[in-house]
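Human: Cast an eye over this sequence-structure pair and say how the chain folds.
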Amino acid sequence: MFESTISEIQPSASAEESQPEKSITAKITGYLRWIGSLLIILSAISFMLQGYTEISASYRYWVSLGLTLLLCGGGLVCAYLFNETKGARIFFGLGTAFLSVQVSQVSAMIYAYVQGENALQPAFTSLQFSHVSPGIIAIDLMLTGVLLVLISYASYSILARKHLKTLLLASLVANTVLILPIRDTQITPFIIAALFIFIRHIEHSLHNDKSMQLFEGLAARALLSLPLWIIIGRSLLHPAASLLITAILGIVIVYCIYDIKRYTSSDTIIYICQWLGTFAAIGIWINVSLEYGNITNSLFILPVGFILFSLSSQVTYHSRLYRLVSSFIIIGLNLEAMVNQQDATFIAPVISIASGIFLTVYGMKYREKIAFFCGNICVAGGILFYWEYAVNLYSNTPWISSIALGLFVILLASYIENKEQHIKAKTRYYLSQLKSWN
């Protein structure tokens, strides 16, 4: 009977989407559903953060579990009693979301029991799950596992039955990672990164199906990502570590620079996200510099220019501005490093020459004069930096240096005479091409 109800909900959802206009009643009920959903979510968040002083950690789990079952009960009422599909999808979707919170609570119980007095506890007293007996933890774990399978199956069947198997398996994997009793500041960032890569891979495959771009499909994909955001959220309740900040900023870059165009066509949103992703990319290097280097050193700031240059091929707006700013940053910092002779005397000119080759090549690729000439200056500056060594070499062994210079001059004269027309043609072609560049 439950299977038949689920199968009836899916086609009716498609029928509702095909209606060209909504009546006033449909709009009002839609607003009411949004308001009701927000009230439930905000109330649950308030309970988890404030709790109730007389309720222990184990009882708090049962209270939130009761709310999860209540939501699923509301979905069954809408499906069976009212024969109404939208409410059923909303209730089961919220129930699945709340179930991930249950998984996180069980994880906190297991972690507190395993680590004992060494367990990292958040500042919020209501989120501390300590002194829970092993028997209660085992019961909660088994109950959560059973409900996770049943409720996730029902929810994904209603929201996206076509991809039920993929969504269900991915959800179980994500929640299994969520339940791991690990809070170590050095390990958690790698768990977050691995889970993000896994979810993003599944999400990309689902996005190619147009049905998954409808509201129900988006809701199913959002539920799949919820365990990742819970792990990030609970990690931020502890003192932030450098690796954690780097992992979070990396996720911001991927979403704001690469993935945002798949979710919206709004120019305003894409523009705002582009700058958020840009600042996140710069923030990663600043965070690394503060952790492992000296941010006042020119060579440690230099990668900011390369970051902007690499982002210029991915952003939608101001790509030339990105390359212009990065070119000036690279040439300015390289020259400043060589003048002040920061770090080892040998490193600064080598980096300048390498940076110059980079800018020259990409200046030719994008046909932009600023990047091209900045690259030439960096290369020339790096080579001229070694002029002092050449002068010293000549003064120490003048006759050897004179012989080498004489041989070079004669060979150069022979080459120019032999390739005169070729050199002239290449020079004219180069100048004409350069005039047409931006």
